[in-house]
Amino acid sequence: MGEVDEAFIQAPEQRPNLSIVDEAQGIPVIDLSPVHQHFENDTVSDPSAIEAVVKEIGRACKELGFFQAINHGVPLNLRNRVEDVSRRFFSQGLEEKKKVARDQTSLPGYYDSEHTRNVRDWKEGLDFLTKEPTSVPISADYDDDRTVQWTNRYPQNPPDLRGAVLEYIEEVEKLAFKLLELIALSLGLEPRRFHGYYLKDQSSFIRFNHYPACPWPHLALGVGPHKDPGALTILAPDEVEGLEVRRKSDKQWIRVKPTPQAFIINIGEVVQVWSNDEYEGAEHRVVVNSQKERYSIPFFFNPAHYTMVEPMKELINEQNPPKYKPYNFGKYLVKKKDSNFEKQNVENIQISHFRLP
Ligand SMILES: O=C(O)CCC(=O)C(=O)O
Ligand SMILES: [Fe+2]
Q: Matching Gene3D superfamilies, A to Z (predicted)?
């Protein structure tokens, strides 16, 4: 086993307490079947018919920023297929996986050294853009308005990976657009209020995560505490526990117990800003396990890179002035990506940096 590599060691206050696991409250499970029944021409046909679901979503977004979705419409056999290709990809030797290694300038591809808030994560990953190519700013510098196109790196092995990923993206994206409507409705907005930030371009991506069993689960984390930068995340976890959410009311870390076949949905920083803090992107992390490896597949639903993210006009007034200044989503994403690659001596970019005094 050897000595633990210090790049993985979390500061004492960030280390997980593995002896106290709080699953008590759990994460709400929301049944989306009424939504599919009242959906026509790519929109909710009768918002009043799904009022109860919208309320449940609103409550979950407000209280925790997390919920689980059942009857979500994504075929189970498709999910099983992507989970299977992900496992087969990671089971290969490092040399094979590194054939699709990502480079420092772009996001897609394989990597085994990501950092969250300057500590190395105990995991390896493989990322795919959902739109190809995806335009993004060449640099996080606001004075540089050049863009660059990122393209995917599909591995040759397993040979059925690409087909499964493409089909999965198509189905999960349909769910993502529905969730975007439900979130808009829950805030009292027009159902398609956020669609314009996605319809022409997006910077969404899906990620295969593999957390190998870790001999030092009390010192390291699979992913350190963070909020997801996009609007929302649709996560397919496997049956091994590990994801923890920090509950707002008492700041305790709550272990998510995955419901079979459900997706775990969380809102990200973009919805936090759009809602002017009515909803807050929940902080979460992944705890590792000395016995079992774990796999997960998040889909990050991110707006077009040129989106200026700011509180919705309908939600602000004199009593509730904007809490954030507008920021460019692509610049934010690029800055986050740069800091995730290597340890830096400054605090990583956070949404709080755009908060108005
Ligand atoms: O693996 C998980 O459960 C969550 C991973 C995660 O939070 C992320 O990749 O952003
Ligand atoms: Fe995350």
A: B-lactam Antibiotic, Isopenicillin N Synthase, Chain (2.60.120.330)
- Percent helix, percent strand, percent coil in the chain, to nearest 5: 30, 25, 45
Domain boundaries, the chain: 18-354
Ligand showing the shortest atom-to-Cα distance for residue 114: 1
Residues forming a β-bridge with 129: 205
Q: What is the ipTM of this complex?
A: 0.99
Ligand 1 contacts CB of residue 125 (under 6 A): no
The residue with tokens 């108005």 is: 356
* 235 ligand 1 Cβ < 6 A: yes
- The atom number, within ligand 1, closest to the CA of 237 reads 3
Architecture of the domain whose range is 18-354: Sandwich (2.60)
Task: Calculate ∠ Cα 198-201-206, nearest 5°.
Answer: 80
Does the CB atom of residue 207 touch ligand 1 within 6 A?
Answer: yes
Best probe residue, ligand 1, of 107, 285, 286 (max atoms within 8 Å of C-beta): 286
Q: Angle at the Cα of 122 (from 121 to 125), degrees rounded to 5? A: 80
For ligand 1, whether the C-beta of 241 sits within 6 Å is: no
Rounded average pLDDT per 10-residue block, the chain, 357 residues = 76 80 74 94 89 97 95 98 98 96 89 81 95 93 93 97 98 98 98 96 97 92 94 97 91 90 97 97 93 97 98 97 97 83 63 91
DSSP secondary structure, 138-154, as one string:
S-S-TT---EEEE----
Backbone angles phi, psi at 108, to 5 degrees: -65, 150
281 lines ligand 1 (CB under 6 A): no
